[in-house]
Amino acid sequence: MTDSFAPDSTKIDYIGDELQLFENAQNWKAYFANRLKPFICGSVAEVGAGLGGTTRTLCSGDEISWAAIEPDPCLCREIKRKVADGELPANVKPSLSVLADRPVSEKFDTILYIDVLEHIEEDANEAARAAERLRPGGHLVVLAPAHQFLFTPFDSAIGHYRRYSRASLRALSPPGLTLQSCFYLDSVGMLASLANKLLLSQSHPKLSQILLWDRAMVPVSRIVDPLLLNSLGKTVVAIWRHP
Fold first, then answer.
1. Predicted confidence band at 1 (pLDDT cuts at 50, 70, 90)?
2. Which residue from 99, 169, 186, 211 lies 20 to 30 Å from 124 (Cα-Cα)?
3. From residue 195, how far is each of 176, 189, 214, 215, 235 by CA, in Å?
């Protein structure tokens, strides 16, 4: 797979088909939304908006604007349809593009990469581009799959170049930004993956597996993660702030 969000390839056909499957992970979406929403405000850019599932979860409609940046024409059309049908807030503006297409002079208060940065080969360059487009006081938010030792055929099948740790995300810190927080989520999901690769051993996990994880494991992780000081998890989050 080529770089899904390469600056010289505005229109990309996304090779993964897991987006529709993970639309069913409502507990998981609510969990990470609760942790991320305090950092989302003003003019927002969501890079790699996909089918708009994360947009629906994170966008309240009260933001000044929400640029849903998506390089896949089919996915971008689906976001446009959802906005037109009222399934997404009216402040969502779909854009068939990548972040590099947008002028550096266009600034945002929040830039989101939700399960996206792992699809980008030159991730450090992408993070630097995002930093250039943040307003003072703005936040760059990255949520990504954690731990390279959990890399499986599922990751390869949907175009992941890597999984991250807190250390590798810290090392990715863009120039001019301060790392405000970096933590793991979903400790129970991580332990289940270590034990039997329940969700990640196949190139196409079953809906029943997604629902088992979302309904049985995620609620327990919401209780256990704080007790472990968010030191374990199969998802890692990093939040940088523009001084």
1. very low
2. 186
3. 40, 10, 17, 18, 16
